[in-house]
Specification:
Elements lengths: L1 H23 L3 H4 L10 E6 L7 E6 L5 E6 L2 H19 L7 H20 L1
Antiparallel strand pairs: 1-2, 2-3
Helix pairs in contact: 1-3, 3-4
């Protein structure tokens, strides 16, 4: 039982680290691809409650006019979902005798797929 809890805790920690790596280097210019460019303007981004995981981009022009858009980062959340599924398969594999190879193969496919979704 203790080994199983440790495996799931490690999988959860890997998912948290993956999310931190994905979000760490992002700035509002990357998170808000539809924001207009302008000298002297400001751009901010924050998570929204609806849609869950969406990002609200607020653009303020030099004249004071503001514009808000909501963007859903499919690549970020798709990559996180694939990585979480791969971590879950890796944590489950040691405890399923009949399907151990299947879970290990699924983890070996899902984790690189998560990287591919993010980097491509």
């Amino acid at each position: 039982m203790g080994f199983r809890v440790a495996a799931w805790a490690a999988a959860a920690a890997f998912v948290v680290v993956w999310l931190a790596i994905l979000v760490a280097g992002l700035d509002p210019d990357v998170l808000c691809p539809d924001a207009p460019d302008g000298a002297g303007s400001s751009l901010s981004a924050q998570l929204t409650l609806w849609p869950p995981g969406g990002i609200e981009c607020t653009y303020v022009s030099p004249g004071g006019a503001s514009e808000r858009t909501t963007h859903f980062p499919w690549d970020l959340w798709g990559s996180a979902a694939l990585f979480a599924a791969g971590a879950a398969c890796a944590a489950t594999a040691p405890f399923r005798r009949r399907s151990r190879l299947l879970f290990a193969a699924a983890a070996a496919v899902l984790v690189p797929a998560a990287a591919a979704v993010w980097f491509l």
